[in-house]
Specification:
The protein is α/β, with parallel strands linked by helices. It is built from nine helices and six strands, in the order ααβββαααβαβαααβ. A six-stranded mixed β-sheet has the order 3-2-1-4-5-6, sandwiched between helices. Mean pLDDT is about 85; it is low at about 5-10 and about 75-80.
Length: about 220
């Protein structure tokens, strides 16, 4: 318990000043999504990864990246949930290929997830396992963004209220295909832009204006 208390009281890494002072409309975002074999962080494996860049409330379609990952891990319910079969996985690329490309965005973009804690825990683990250095990463969490909005009345929302399709529906965003890493990354980017438009719509609003919502995290460079 004491370890937990020390963790809660420990100062959080500071957001680099260059990001804090930058207007939200000028920030280059990289929205990332992972499809996993399970939600058990002790043995989950990445089946596919997708990402897309966005800036100024516009998505860069030419930046879309999607890769199925080759793995010998059990697929569990993945063929049902993600539509990825053993044949798809057998034709996938090594995870290292995607990670080497992804680390190039660490310093130039703010990374966006719909549940940063899950995806960054997995990503940090595989970067370290493959001995790939990862610079400091600043992230924004769209799930926590909506959680902040919904808990202003001090009533915790039901769990299903925080899934990506339900969060999008609250902003009148259209339904999109789910459980494909690239589709979900694009859907999350659209959600982020809708959240920013509602929460910080002025052109001069900077990333610092989002600190009150507790949606920003800083992950220090890993030690390889």
């Amino acid at each position: 318990m004491w370890q937990k208390i020390k963790q809660w009281l420990a100062p959080r890494p500071q957001v680099p000043q260059k990001w804090l002072n930058m207007p939200l409309v000028e920030i280059p975002f990289l929205c990332i999504d992972l499809e996993l074999t399970s939600l058990d962080l002790n043995d989950t494996k990445i089946l596919s990864i997708g990402w897309v860049e966005g800036k100024g409330k516009q998505i860069s379609m030419q930046s879309c990246f999607y890769q199925v990952v080759s793995t010998t891990a059990s697929l569990n319910q993945s063929p049902v949930i993600h539509g990825l079969t053993a044949q798809d996985i057998a034709q996938g690329q090594p995870l290292r290929v995607a990670l080497e490309a992804l680390k190039g965005f660490a310093s130039s973009h703010i990374w966006v997830f719909h549940c940063t804690g899950l995806d960054m825990t997995v990503l940090n683990g595989v970067f370290k396992k493959l001995n790939i250095p990862l610079p400091t990463v600043v992230t924004v969490d769209t799930l926590r963004f909506d959680l902040y909005q919904l808990t202003k009345n001090l009533r915790p929302p039901p769990l299903n209220a925080m899934v990506l399709p339900v969060c999008r529906a609250r902003y009148n965003l259209p339904a999109v295909p789910a459980h494909n890493a690239l589709d979900d990354a694009m859907a999350t980017m659209e959600l982020l832009f809708a959240q920013i438009q509602k929460f910080a719509p002025a052109k001069h609003d900077t990333l610092e204006s989002l600190l009150v919502a507790d949606v920003i995290d800083v992950f220090p460079a890993n030690e390889i």
